[in-house]
Design brief:
single chain; Rossmann fold; seven-stranded mixed sheet; 233 residues
Length: 233
């Protein structure tokens, strides 16, 4: 379902009331690189697992609870984005935050002037992303989106993905999506928390005509590397 949820709400307070009627809501002020963002997410995520799962469809859950907070892969990605913005402005660039969760990365892109679409398969995630992107709603849209089958009308200069490559069963569809919706000179920007699939995904992309660079942004508490993957055709 491709539909801009931001367009459904006349004010942010009504949207937040809707969220609070379904989930315990946490508010956090994120200060990063001179920016201050008000980010809403699900409070006490580990105590809410049953509430955060999607319905069972075809013997599997629609979505799992990973959408409900900003994970380290997203938090470190926005650090990198702001560093890049100082070198080359993101203003006016068409950016897709794919698998956006609560939308931290897309909000930072919008805050520095990008034209942003925040997309996730889990509809509750997109509600939170809409609340978080509210200050930049003139240049931000939020959509419920399935990259396996839904169709977009635009291409993007940057496609962001914080920890979206952990399941190999999604890679073929993800590759088709990149081929269809990345602009000719565009860039894929991914972060992943040192899983084996992070290495394997790089090897999967290269034979399909992609050049990919990998670097370590930081170390996680489990001493795994939080990696940045930059891919271009």
């Amino acid at each position: 379902m491709v539909h801009n949820l931001l367009a459904d709400w006349s004010d942010r307070s009504a949207l937040l009331d809707q969220l609070a009627s379904r989930f315990p809501v946490a508010r956090e002020v994120v200060e990063i690189g001179g920016l201050q963002l008000e980010i809403f997410s699900v409070a006490n995520v580990h105590d809410q697992i049953d509430l955060l799962m999607g319905e069972v469809v075809g013997g599997d859950y629609q979505w799992e609870p990973f959408w409900a907070q900003a994970w380290p892969s997203a938090r470190r990605l926005v650090d990198w984005m702001l560093e890049e913005n100082r070198r080359q402005s993101w203003a006016g660039r068409r950016v897709l935050d794919l698998g956006c969760g609560v939308g931290l990365c897309g909000c930072v892109a919008a805050a520095v002037g990008a034209e942003v679409t925040l997309a996730d398969y889990a509809e509750p995630a997109v509600w939170f992303a809409a609340a978080n992107a509210w200050p930049w709603r003139e240049r931000a849209s939020t959509i419920v989106f399935d990259w396996h089958k839904d169709v977009l009308s635009d291409k993007f200069d940057v496609i962001l993905g914080a920890d979206i490559v952990y399941e190999q069963r999604n890679w073929a569809a993800l590759l088709r999506f990149f081929d269809s919706y990345l602009s000719d000179a565009g860039q894929i920007v991914l972060t992943e928390p040192g899983r084996d699939t992070g290495e394997t995904f790089q090897n999967y992309l290269r034979p399909h005509g992609w050049r990919i660079e990998s670097s370590v942004l930081s170390k996680l508490e489990n001493n795994r590397p939080l990696r940045l993957l930059l891919a271009q055709r």
